[in-house]
Automatic annotation (TrEMBL):
Pathway stated in the Swiss-Prot or TrEMBL entry: One-carbon metabolism; tetrahydrofolate interconversion
Protein name listed in UniProt: Bifunctional protein FolD
UniProt binding sites for NADP(+): G166, R167, S168
Catalysis: reaction(s): (6R)-5,10-methenyltetrahydrofolate + H2O = (6R)-10-formyltetrahydrofolate + H(+); (6R)-5,10-methylene-5,6,7,8-tetrahydrofolate + NADP(+) = (6R)-5,10-methenyltetrahydrofolate + NADPH
Gene behind this protein: folD
InterPro entries: Aminoacid_DH-like_N_sf, NAD(P)-bd_dom_sf, THF_DH/CycHdrlase, THF_DH/CycHdrlase_cat_dom, THF_DH/CycHdrlase_CS, THF_DH/CycHdrlase_NAD-bd_dom
Family: Belongs to the tetrahydrofolate dehydrogenase/cyclohydrolase family.
């Protein structure tokens, strides 16, 4: 068996083009140009590269990109103050805090300083609760992108057994919640799970989000499984041993070119959604008093 690749680039390009059309329409009708503020703490080269990539995609989608770069020594209080300022700025519609942040910062406190209405990366507890309860709200971008990719490739989710490897609050945990909301039966696992290979062999769908290169081996997989590699490690290596997986699975996402483009595309789509929602709830002048 040679697996078919689940490529995210083409679908992501369609999503970005649609976001650009909607952003242009919003600007023409209301004068509002969607704006995404990216906040980077420190000078980590990989994080800086990701931020530049997102800014470039913003330009293609007709979204204004505002960059905030803070020193590596920034404290939690200083970062929270900056995020609160952006949250209160009506010209900013979405906020992205590039993570991970330096070790001295309480990352959860920083995330919670983002207005839920501007949390277009889906990192707040409000966003997680919305995903868990099936309520409207922004999705964590990588899990949300994974669901869109599975749907595009007509992967049956209802009744399927999905094994999520990883428990990050912005990747593994919300991925499981979204799969559960799609009527999949979900098993959460992680790098310390006892008997992990045997559990993975029962999965119709495997989501690898553990942050360890080549962690998931081909012999762990059930023949014909759908494998989503949400990992990215040095050297363009995912969390799944790609060559081994493609010899066993039915569908596999490559790294790069699989999940990554979907993450950015959903970020831009949700930024336009946020701008639309905020333009609709903006205070309008009372007739006769303008």
């Amino acid at each position: 068996m040679t697996a078919e690749l689940m490529i995210g680039t083409e679908l992501a390009a369609e999503m970005v083009a649609n976001a650009a059309t909607r952003a242009g329409r919003l600007r023409a009708e209301t004068g509002v140009q969607p704006c995404l503020a990216t906040v980077l703490v420190g000078d980590d080269p990989a994080s800086a590269t990701y931020v530049r990539m997102k800014q470039n995609r913003c330009r293609k989608a007709g979204i204004e990109s505002r960059s905030v770069v803070l020193p590596a020594a920034t404290t939690t209080a200083e970062l929270v103050a900056e995020l609160a300022k952006l949250s209160n700025d009506p010209s900013v519609h979405g906020i992205l805090l590039q993570h991970p942040v330096p070790g001295q910062i309480d990352e959860r406190a920083a995330f919670e300083a983002i207005d839920p209405g501007k949390d277009v990366d889906g990192v707040t507890m409000h966003a997680f609760a919305a995903m868990a309860f099936g309520e409207p709200g922004f999705r964590s971008c990588t899990p949300g992108g994974i669901l869109r990719l599975l749907q595009a490739y007509d992967v049956p989710l209802s009744g399927a057994h999905a094994v999520v490897i990883g428990r990050s609050p912005i990747l593994g945990k919300p991925a499981g919640m979204l799969l559960l909301a799609s009527d999949a039966t979900v098993t959460y696992t992680h790098s310390r799970t006892v008997g992990l290979p045997d559990i993975v062999r029962t999965a119709d769908i495997v989501v690898a989000a553990v942050g360890k290169p080549n962690f998931v081996r081909g012999e762990w997989l059930k023949p014909g499984a759908v494998v989503v590699d949400a990992g990215y490690n040095e050297g363009n290596v995912g969390d799944v041993h790609f060559a081994e997986a493609t010899a066993v699975a039915r569908l596999v996402t490559p790294v790069p070119g699989g999940v990554g483009p979907m993450t950015i595309a959903l970020l831009l789509e949700q930024t336009v959604d946020a701008a639309q929602a905020q333009s609709e709830t903006a205070v309008q002048p009372v007739a006769g008093l303008a």
